[in-house]
Design brief:
Radius of gyration: 20 Å
Order of helices and strands: EHEHEHEHEHHHHHEEHHHHEH
CATH class of the largest domain: Alpha Beta
Strand content: 5-15%
Number of domains: 2
Number of strands: 8
Shape: globular
Helix content: 40-55%
CATH architecture of the largest domain: 3-Layer(aba) Sandwich
Distance between the termini: 13 Å
Number of helices: 14
């Protein structure tokens, strides 16, 4: 690729649902182009969460470094606004080296915040959040979701009834501002001048994607996922309420280790939750992000990305 033909602020984004083959494709691209990979996965930012997040192996990360991987402890929080700041810093460093940033992942909220800009939302308030958590511990998150629906029907349709983290944030914003999060999020503030070139992997039928998801989770178990969650569970300051442990797979295996249900039940629940995650990711791609559809096995993909970069 002729770097002189690439617009200075070009950023390539490679998006797709979980288990669609994003990492493998990113590595192929890195072998062809002067690319630096930047992680866009909200779970892979955490240290010691390797197997359940499908994090690239140590050997791959040595050969193909991924920025924004292993930057937080599991006890920490990490928001979309923090991601945007970190991503902008990494992109600037990559451009300074006359290389191309390749943003790779499936956290559509992060992509949307980076590409479309951030909304002006209030900072977290521990007192408000604790009060919401206390109420949820009594009535459960599905009923808190119904409470959210009475305040903000749009947000309620977008947020899963069991997604306590996002329900909590939406209710917190309303308590702090008197305005619903949907209205506030519509007031975007652009945070960069990049030339985004977006590619979305939509290469599998739903049945094939579900098959890949189910098999991958079984492979995670074979590779030591139970031990990984057990080690995390033994961390003195880490609980099941932390955002990291609400990640798909970790939540279900933690509950199994607590004796809430059998391993077979945990496996079925984790696989189902992962399929639901993939469905939400696909909906985001269809409705919220303008991207060219690509097939991970398409032999013309390399030339298509090359041509798009040169047009930038």
């Amino acid at each position: 690729m002729d770097l002189k033909k690439i617009k200075d602020l070009t950023v390539i984004c490679l998006l797709g649902p979980t288990a669609s083959g994003k990492t493998e494709l990113a590595i192929k691209l890195s072998e062809q182009f002067p690319i630096d990979i930047v992680n866009v996965d909200s779970a892979q930012v955490y240290r010691e969460m390797n197997i359940g997040t499908a994090k690239p192996s140590h050997e791959i990360l040595i050969k193909f470094p991924h920025r924004l991987i292993d930057i937080r402890d599991p006890e920490d929080t990490y928001s979309a606004s923090e991601f945007v700041k970190d991503a902008n810093d990494e992109i600037a460093q990559i451009h300074a080296k006359q290389r191309i940033p390749l943003m790779v992942g499936g956290t559509m909220l992060y992509f949307h915040a980076l590409i479309e800009g951030l909304s002006k939302l209030p900072d977290r308030d521990k007192g408000v959040r604790d009060a919401i958590d206390h109420e949820a511990s009594i009535i459960g998150w599905p009923k808190m979701h119904k409470k959210l629906a009475s305040i903000d029907t749009t947000a309620a349709k977008r947020i899963n009834p069991n997604d306590g983290q996002r329900i909590q944030r939406a209710l917190e914003v309303y308590d702090l501002t008197g305005k619903n999060i949907t209205d506030l999020q519509s007031q975007k503030q652009k945070n960069n001048n990049y030339n985004f070139i977006n590619f979305a992997i939509r290469c599998h039928s739903r049945a094939e994607l579900h098959r890949r998801i189910n098999l991958r989770f079984l492979s995670m178990l074979d590779n030591g996922f139970l031990e990984e969650v057990s080690n995390l569970k033994n961390r003195e300051s880490l609980t099941s309420k932390h955002a990291s442990m609400r990640a798909v797979g970790y939540k279900q295996i933690w509950s199994y280790l607590d004796g809430d249900f059998s391993l077979d039940e945990a496996i079925m629940r984790a696989q189902a939750s992962t399929r639901q995650l993939a469905k939400r990711q696909i909906t985001w791609l269809r409705n919220s992000i303008d991207a060219s559809e690509v097939n991970a096995k398409n032999q013309n993909l390399i030339s298509a990305i090359s041509a798009s970069c040169k047009k930038g």
